[in-house]
UniProtKB/TrEMBL annotation:
Coiled coil: none annotated. One of its GO terms (molecular function) is N-acetyl-gamma-glutamyl-phosphate reductase activity. It catalyses: N-acetyl-L-glutamate 5-semialdehyde + phosphate + NADP(+) = N-acetyl-L-glutamyl 5-phosphate + NADPH + H(+). The active site is at C135. It comes from Flaviramulus multivorans. Catalyzes the NADPH-dependent reduction of N-acetyl-5-glutamyl phosphate to yield N-acetyl-L-glutamate 5-semialdehyde. It is found in: Cytoplasm. Keywords: Amino-acid biosynthesis, Arginine biosynthesis, Cytoplasm, NADP, Oxidoreductase. The gene is argC. Pathway: Amino-acid biosynthesis; L-arginine biosynthesis; N(2)-acetyl-L-ornithine from L-glutamate: step 3/4. This is N-acetyl-gamma-glutamyl-phosphate reductase. SUPFAM superfamilies: Glyceraldehyde-3-phosphate dehydrogenase-like, C-terminal domain (SSF55347), NAD(P)-binding Rossmann-fold domains (SSF51735). Belongs to the NAGSA dehydrogenase family. Type 1 subfamily. SMART domains: Semialdhyde_dh (SM00859).
């Protein structure tokens, strides 16, 4: 059994990891680390796990676990690894943004591979250290990579994407309170969102000539989970050609699918899927991409990466069904 350690165990992404891993046939959770909850039952924080797990949070680590998931706030993974050492055999999957960019991928002799399976599957299989992609970045990259692969992004890309309240994390802020979020809608970080760095990096990995702008407007939705992204750019060929390009690019993808019908968010909530739909209007191609921000955008994709790293079937422990009604 693969022995797993989780750091930052009280947050949303850690909760999702625990829910998935307790039912993973090849995994045993060795410890869940949380200094603020040490000694408390995990089910006291993640209350849906009453009767499902008997472990308590701990403030000590087992440095010899097989794989370590870092579920820390952005910038805190580096701080944690600076003062905590693990076995050379311990694989690390960071769900934060500390190691996603090329300039940050090497840390204390460890090289972190960017963990988007649809782009880097073979590299992930050989990796010991993974930088798990951001949630917005996952949805937007999966909308753009088939075009980049054919060198077809010749103009600016316009992105409008809405995320649920869980995208802001478990810590409260003015814009996460129910009274603010309910029956409300707003944008934030217009054109400057931190995920743009990794999106541009991946697009240029496939289309080195890409020099246009990705104009990204992130929005806060008044729902709990999910990302609904619409992306459009110039595309001269018929929509059927675009469909052929996308279906071919994702032919071997376990979780990314091209739909002929228009999409709605409930199709992917509580799954590890990304669904994509294509629509042509005059010379513009509209690409809709939807994911669950906590699963395909975080913890589900992290387990997908773990499966690849350990030679398991990519879908192991991730056969999830959408909560449709």
């Amino acid at each position: 059994m693969i022995q797993v350690g989780i750091i930052g165990g009280a947050g949303y992404t850690a909760g999702e990891l625990i829910r998935l891993l307790i039912n993973h046939p090849d995994v045993e959770i060795n410890f869940v680390y949380s200094t603020s909850n040490a000694g408390n039952a995990i089910s006291k924080v993640h209350q849906d796990l009453v009767g499902s797990i008997d472990l308590k949070f701990t403030d000590t680590i087992n440095s010899k676990v097989d794989v370590l998931f870092l579920c820390l706030g952005h910038g805190n993974s580096v701080k944690f690894l600076e003062v905590n050492s693990f076995s050379e055999k311990t694989k690390i999957i960071d769900l934060g943004n500390d190691f996603r960019l090329e300039k940050d991928k090497v840390f204390k002799g460890k090289t972190f591979i960017y963990g988007l399976p649809e782009l880097q599957r073979e590299a992930i299989k050989k990796a010991n250290y993974i930088a798990n992609p951001g949630c917005f970045a996952t949805a937007i990259q999966l909308a753009l990579l088939p075009l980049a692969d054919k060198n077809l992004i010749g103009n600016d890309v316009h992105v409008n994407a809405v995320t649920g309240a869980t995208g802001a994390g478990v810590s409260l802020s003015e814009t996460t309170h129910f009274t603010w979020r309910d029956n409300n809608f707003s944008y934030y970080k217009p054109f400057t969102h931190q995920h743009l760095g990794e999106i541009n990096q991946s697009v240029k990995q496939l289309q080195n000539s890409f020099s246009s702008e990705i104009l990204f407007m992130p929005n806060r939705g008044n729902f709990s989970r999910g990302i609904f992204a619409t992306v459009y750019t110039d595309f001269e060929a018929p929509v059927e050609e675009a469909k052929s390009i996308y279906k071919s690019f994702y032919n071997d993808a376990e979780f990314t699918f091209v739909s002929d019908a228009a999409l709605h968010l409930k199709q992917v909530v509580n799954t590890n899927k990304c669904l994509i739909h294509l629509h042509k209007h005059n010379d513009k191609l509209l690409v809709t991409s939807i994911i669950d921000n906590l699963l395909k955008g975080a913890s589900g994709q992290a387990i997908q990466n773990m499966n690849l790293m350990f030679g398991l079937k990519e879908t192991t422990g991730l056969h999830l069904k959408a909560t449709y009604f």
